[in-house]
Amino acid sequence: MNELELRCLKFATTIRDFCRLLKHDTINLVYIKQVVRSSSSIGANYIEANENLGRQDLLMHLKISRKEAKETQYWLDLIITEDEITRIGLKKEAEEIRRIMSAIINKIQGQ
Fold this sequence. Notes:
Elements: H1 3-20, H2 26-49, H3 55-78, H4 84-110
Helix pairs in contact: 1-2, 1-4, 2-3, 3-4
């Protein structure tokens, strides 16, 4: 597993653990399910991108990873929590991962 795969995995597990501590009411349950899905999809698509099935497949999965990072930020905004410090840290990490994915995409497209 490379460094970015590990970072994505750590991010998804941190989101999962954060969500376990949230109030599981009717509204939050919808947002929790979405943020868990989108955050775990970042790394899953990055792993798929590294399967070396061609340039177009690589770019498609990297773009999906980037999209899922953006989506994760959105769901984090909607979750009802009093733990703003953790939420802000998670949003920052999602943004950093999104920027890394963008840099990789730009590098590949520039070749």
